[in-house]
Inverse folding.
């Protein structure tokens, strides 16, 4: 049979356990609120990071397209440069050929003058 002091002791123990449970509930509730706030903050940051990632991906796609466009322009410029180089070489050869013809004609004119001068000298004698 339980004595009154045993009952009081058990009652005090139950009261202490209830107080501990209440305190533990409060701490857990507080921790849950803190974790929910942290979760909310992290979700908000995640959304910001995802938006930033999308922005960076779009910028990267734009830069890649610009790079492709620049490569195409470079290729076109190289083709144009090669055409000008070939035209320049062709014109230089044509000029050289024409200069050779001019030099040859000058030589012919000189020979004809020499012959004419000789002929005139022969006539004057």
């Amino acid at each position: 049979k339980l004595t009154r002091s045993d009952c009081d002791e058990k009652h005090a123990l139950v009261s202490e356990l209830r107080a501990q449970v209440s305190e533990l509930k409060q701490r857990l509730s507080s921790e849950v609120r803190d974790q929910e706030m942290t979760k909310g903050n992290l979700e908000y940051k995640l959304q910001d990071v995802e938006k930033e990632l999308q922005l960076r991906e779009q910028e990267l796609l734009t830069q890649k397209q610009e790079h492709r466009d620049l490569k195409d322009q470079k290729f076109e410029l190289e083709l144009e440069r090669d055409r000008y180089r070939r035209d320049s070489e062709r014109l230089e050869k044509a000029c050289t050929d024409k200069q050779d013809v001019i030099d040859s004609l000058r030589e012919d004119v000189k020979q004809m003058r020499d012959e004419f001068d000789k002929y005139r000298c022969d006539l004057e004698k």
